[in-house]
Known about the structure:
Number of strands: 16
Number of helices: 16
Largest sheet: 5 strands, antiparallel
Helix content: 25-40%
Strand order of the largest sheet: 5-4-16-15-14
Amino acid sequence: DEDSKRYYPYGDLAAQVIGFCGSDNQGLDGIEAKYNDELKGTNGKIERQTNAAGESLGDEEYISAIDGNSLILTIDMTIQSIVEKYLEEACIDNVCTDGGSIIAMNPKNGDILAMATYPAYDLNSPYEPHTDEQKAEWKNLDSQDRTTAMQKMWRNKAISDTYEPGSVFKTITSSAALEEGIVTDIDKQGQFCCTGGIEVAGVRIKCWRYYRPHGSESLRLALMNSCNPVFIGLGQKIGVTKYYEYLRKFGLFNKTGIKLPGEANSIFIKEEKAGPVELATISFGQRFEITPLQMVTAVSSIANKGTYIKPRIVKSIINSETGEKTDMPIETGEQIISKENAEKVLSMMNSVVSEGTGKNAKVEGYQVGGKTGTSEDGVNTGKYVTSFCGVANTDDPQIVLLITLYNPTGEGGHQGGGVAAPVGGKILSEVLPYLDSKADIDKIM
């Protein structure tokens, strides 16, 4: 009897996205599980009629097997390979005890160009440890602990884990403040003043540079300096009701609906319970949790001229019998902020990279915008999440990149500008020329 087995020629590439199959070729995780009905096809069989004694009453009829349909993912193999290379390097060099994730998204159509989680696993042997560290630990684990370790290894952190986004979220507060007309001139010097902290309902919340306050600032400088008091003040002026309205418009209260299993949702305090202190901390990106996918989608919506763009992972489905290709729709939502205000936010993000906390993400010859983030991973855990969200080119965005590293404990520290931004610079320095050459080829064809 012939048998068939799923084989993955690229091993661990995009492992947590693709997923794997069981012994009967049924999808158990990732795309394999989500689209199992499309992919599995129908087995061949022989049909015949028999009497009670099992004797044949006529001819046998052979019914051929039907191949499953084929999927074309939005994942670009070249970009995925580059992203995985630098994610692994970053997690090892910075001793990220809880791994990391990176998402690259096309803000114009929502295509996920890359989605990587470290550590990964080999799709051809999903029940075995993959990295040297995992192999060393494996020997000392009992069966229950091995099961837990495997589930952790298979987990797609980019969509299944929530985190406090930290200062990357200041792009959302900036967007709301501009759209509400609280700020109109992003370069008006002296519109804000950092004194090292701000009093909120009897609680003094410090700026990260409380020992040497930023002093007089414009909104552009405040974002470049990642100055917490300025964004707390903006949150106060926007108000809870209006601020929560923008959170809803950016899709931050709902799952994105990406066609992958295991997507988590955000964790926000309910609007009616959000007081002055809660609004203050949300305004600079702390004391709530979202998924990396929700964060990159929100920034992609800014890069998409202010219009919400839904992420997609499957580009099209090809019918195995007819060869007919069905394209998955590009889904957009409402206009969250005006095109003009979206351009102002991108301009400020450009300054963050050219002169501010994200300067380690510069790429010669390209307009790269970005925002760094550092947050505590929960309360009193002593762990940090460091991140960087980049947009390139800011004058005509082709890619939005979010790097999230969990609990970096290396000598480089845990600040987003020093740990995550350099990773963004390395990735974009290879991805952007590739996208340029790809665009040139598309023009010729």
